[in-house]
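Lab notebook: predicted structure, single chain.

Context: the supervisor wants predicted structures on file for every construct in the current expression panel, including those that have not yet been purified. This is the next one on the list. No modifications to the sequence; it matches the entry in the shared construct table.
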Amino acid sequence: MTTATQMPLSGSFPTVRLSAREMRAFALYASGRTMCEVAEDMGVSETTVQTYIKRIRRKYMAAGAHLSNKIEIYRAAQAAGLL
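Prediction complete. Output recorded below exactly as produced.
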């Protein structure tokens, strides 16, 4: 079982709680990899990666930030120090 970690963000991005697996998927996907490549790197299915990204987007949306495209995902990951 993975514990959730507080992920401080700077700039216009709110602070959200992501699991370690969500943070890894977030960093890999934001760095430019495809869902398929992220899945291969993490040893999970592409559907699992899609679920992680959906959860991340929902968490940000609940906190007031909409990550509607990959550029916004990149910026949020960069602000979080994941890139």
